[in-house]
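User: Predict the full complex structure for these chains.
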Amino acid sequence: MAGTVVATTSARKGKGLIRIDCDITVTGATSLTATPIGSAYGRIVAAIFEPTAGAGATMDTTADLTISDAKTGATVFSTLDFGTARSIRPTAIITSNVGVAVTAATTATDVNRDIFVAGKLNLAMANVSNAVSPGVTGYFGLVVEEA
Amino acid sequence: MAGSVGTKYIAHRPRGIVRTDVTITTDAAGIATATVVGVGFGRLVGVESSGTGAPLITVTDTKSGAVLLTHVPTPAIFGNTTTGDTTGGTSEDLWTTGAAHGLSEGAAIVFTSITGGGTVAVNTKYFVTKTTGFAATTFCLSSTAALSAATTKDVEIGASDVSASSWFTVGAAITPRHFRPSRILEGATGTAIASDANHTNQNRDIFLTGKVSVSATGGVAAEACVLALIVDEEGLGDIALTV
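Assistant: Here is the predicted structure of the two-chain assembly.
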């Protein structure tokens, strides 16, 4: 016995620029468990927030939003500030080839890179005000460049 | 005779963004031998890890054996102080935590760091042998799961107390992680170019150009790590860094 390594590969040809619209409703709770929002294969180029969308109360400015990979549960990006209506371009700090984050310094500039995703994604919320139906609502959009 | 050079031309039609999910199961020695996990021709734009255990995972180019990337998954380290006592009569060889440890008898833990002591090692599985009758912050360890009363405390902490340590529970889920690895540029003679005032932005993406193998060492038995490699074969690349 020498351990095992088993691999499966999935690939997808680019569909162009795709946008995943997420209408978020949190009812009778302060959080929303990780919920599938679809799959994407490419570079995240925008994350769009609109806290007043929907029929419920305005999404809390300080609500936490997390996008994670459905397979591993790894956080792709998160924000502790749902904030006001805006569009951002999230990035990640690169790591070395041993997985250690590269700290920005005068001798190490430009350490932020685009975030790539490949596969199914989940969305989760936390720190939302507890409200009865129609609850707290908001909109989140994820824009991915697949080709 | 003037020697010879054999050449082979390899190309690969892009498949878009390619994801390879790898499940690594370690053997009794905490090892998984190198296994081909697929082919990648493009820029490595993401790596994810999850599952259990924290062995050293190595990703290599199958053809050459060159190391492309190493990674130790992030285990869920117990979030409080843990000390080991070698003296004091009944408390001898007891471990004490700064908050309730939540361990049950039969559970296994692995130390990732130890300060002091002498006989306890990191990256080695130890079994929790006794919590019954103790405070919620105290437990005993053994090096074997098969116990008798005489071996309940068979792990000798050593000549001096362990003043600090960190550990994780075997089989507990690690903290999933998503990151984008890179490599340092080398000069024309193959020497790494150290970052300095004249050489900033030295990190570049890692490219895969053929079969890739994955192996694991330094873990404990029967852990199941999950590694995902995300490769951009589409050629999306990166935006220019200079405006």
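Chain B has a mean pLDDT of 85.
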